[in-house]
Amino acid sequence: MDLARAHGLSAQAVRNYEQAGVIPPARRTPSGYRVYTDDHAGALAAYLGLLPGYGYPAAGEIMRAVLRDDLDAALAVIDAAHVQLRRDRDTVTAVAAALVTTPAAGQLPDRPVSVGVLAHRLGVTAATLRKWERAGILAPARSGTARAYSPDDVRDAELAHLLRRGGYLLGHISVVIEQVRAAGGPGPLAASIAQWRDRLTARGRAMLTGSARLSDYLDQRHAAPPVGDTGGAAACGEDQ
């Protein structure tokens, strides 16, 4: 199939994309062959261009909206993806800033501390610490109603306190703390900040490329011949 070969795909992959609704349905010949036109080629190029930056779910949602002529819905998905990218960039910035002032291991307590001790250390109330716990920022051990904050909990509380002073919301702080925990502490996470930034830059560039491919396809659809005109079918081939 010419359409599949042009993109290094199998004929089955193109049929799967058609079934998923990310390219238009193909016209069938009397003998049952699918006929793919320039419209299908443009849609496939747009979809494949969107994938690296937006991922499969969002790219599929965008293309299905475009094919049902709901451009507002397609642009809403694109807008949401860019908002998420901005949030991810803010998270990296917050993590990098927080790690600069993260207390060293020698500055942390060598045993679990009570909620009162931790609250006094930070200059906050016990109610504030409990609120951070509900937001997923802290996860102290419990013995009945008593909370015991490990050295790692104290470190997380110090980071949270710093970020709150910087104006970050609890939901954002929770994401930052999750990254610290997943990395095994601030040290390993600090080493990966540059790679994290590089991945976000690559995603941003891929989103720009995908948006350009989609814009090309939108221009193509706007200039398409009237419905019923089968021009361009031979250029893209056909298959059952």
UniProtKB/TrEMBL annotation:
GO molecular function: DNA binding; DNA-binding transcription factor activity
Region Disordered, residue ranges: 220-240
Claim: DNA-binding is one of the keywords in the record: yes
Source organism, top-level taxon: Bacteria
Iron found in the keyword field: no
Domain annotation HTH merR-type: ranges: 1-40
Coiled-coil parts of chain: none
UniProt keywords, alphabetically: DNA-binding, Repressor, Transcription, Transcription regulation
Pfam families linked: MerR, MerR_1
SUPFAM superfamilies tied to this protein: Putative DNA-binding domain (SSF46955)
PANTHER family xref list: MERR-FAMILY TRANSCRIPTIONAL REGULATOR, REDOX-CYCLING DRUG-SENSING TRANSCRIPTIONAL ACTIVATOR SOXR
Designated name of the protein: DNA-binding transcriptional MerR regulator
Organism name: Actinoplanes xinjiangensis
